[in-house]
Amino acid sequence: MSKLPKVLHLVQEFEFDEPYLVALKDAGYQCYIGKDRKHLLKQLEAEEFDLLILDWRNDDTTEWLLEQIRVFLKWQGPILFIADKGEEKQLHQVCTHHFDNFLTRPIQPNTLLSYANKLVNDARYTMHQDNFELGPYKIAMGLKQISFNNKPISLTSKEFDLGALFLRNPGRLYSRKFLLKKIWGIDCDISTRTVDAHVSSLRKKLNIKGDGMYRIKTVYQHGYRLELLEETEAVA
């Protein structure tokens, strides 16, 4: 793996035995914990993670958590569920996301590591393809070039990085703190005006002003997300 993978799990729901932690850490994983569901979601909004490990419970709390992860935050990374025997049928239905998978107890540390490696590697391969398209936009990562209707757009390096992030992950909610760390490499609570200024410039240069098929929406007290508008919204 090109960089140390980061895994996030709920400590209250899945209390790792020491062999599990040792297996992941020895393999180069950075292990983070969510003290509760809200704390996990806050970390997921502010940081970049390669894998979530969640304890599976067939109840409303798990359903609510998955809705927050997949629907509200639009996080598209892999989830590894840990479950008891007898719940395989339900988990096959839940693991509809391309990268999701599950393990049933008892679990061997090497098995957990093997599953984690596969999920992370598969997701990274898909997310780091050199070229991709979204509607009228074509993005060439190697050339650091975004084109609109086959016409190259003049962007600064930071504008390209920001635009490529939004266009690769439509619907994903990004906090200003996350963007500062991801795009600028700044990991502290300073003024986020730099982010706001770049988003404003990006809207103009990419022609994402809310009157077309896309918009970069400001989500109050959270950050930004790229949204696909319905046709009626786009022409309103």
How much beta, percentage-wise? 15-25%
Strand order of the largest sheet: 2-1-3-4-5
Going by helix content, strand content and strand pairing, the class is: alpha/beta
**In the CATH hierarchy, what is the superfamily of the largest domain?**
Response regulator
Annotation, overall tally of beta strands: 12
Evaluate the radius of gyration.
19 Å
- The CATH architecture classification of the largest domain is 3-Layer(aba) Sandwich
**Helix fraction?**
40-55%
CATH class of the largest domain: Alpha Beta
- CATH topology grouping of the largest domain: Rossmann fold
> How many DSSP H or I helices?
9
Shape: elongated
Low-confidence stretches: 231-236
Return the string of H and E elements: EHEHEHEHEHEEEEHEHHEEH
Integer count of domains = 2
Keywords: DNA-binding, Phosphoprotein, Two-component regulatory system
GO molecular function, one term: transcription cis-regulatory region binding
InterPro entries: CheY-like_superfamily (IPR011006), OmpR/PhoB-type_DNA-bd (IPR001867), Sig_transdc_resp-reg_C-effctor (IPR016032), Sig_transdc_resp-reg_receiver (IPR001789), WalR-like (IPR039420), WH-like_DNA-bd_sf (IPR036388)
Pfam family, one: Trans_reg_C
Structure description:
This is DNA-binding response regulator. InterPro entries: CheY-like_superfamily, OmpR/PhoB-type_DNA-bd, Sig_transdc_resp-reg_C-effctor, Sig_transdc_resp-reg_receiver, WalR-like, WH-like_DNA-bd_sf. One of its GO terms (biological process) is regulation of DNA-templated transcription. The protein has helices spanning 18-26, 37-46, 60-72, 88-94, 109-127, 157-168, 176-184, 193-205, 231-235; strands spanning 6-10, 30-34, 51-55, 79-83, 101-104, 131-134, 137-140, 145-148, 151-152, 174-175, 214-219, 223-228. Mean pLDDT is 85; it is low at 231-236. Helix 1 (18-26) packs across helix 5 (109-127) and helix 6 crosses helix 8 (193-205). The protein folds into two domains: 6-127, Rossmann fold; 131-235, Winged helix-like DNA-binding domain superfamily/Winged helix DNA-binding domain (Arc Repressor Mutant, subunit A, Orthogonal Bundle). The termini are far apart. By secondary structure, the protein is of the alpha/beta class. A five-stranded parallel beta sheet has the order 2-1-3-4-5, sandwiched between helices.
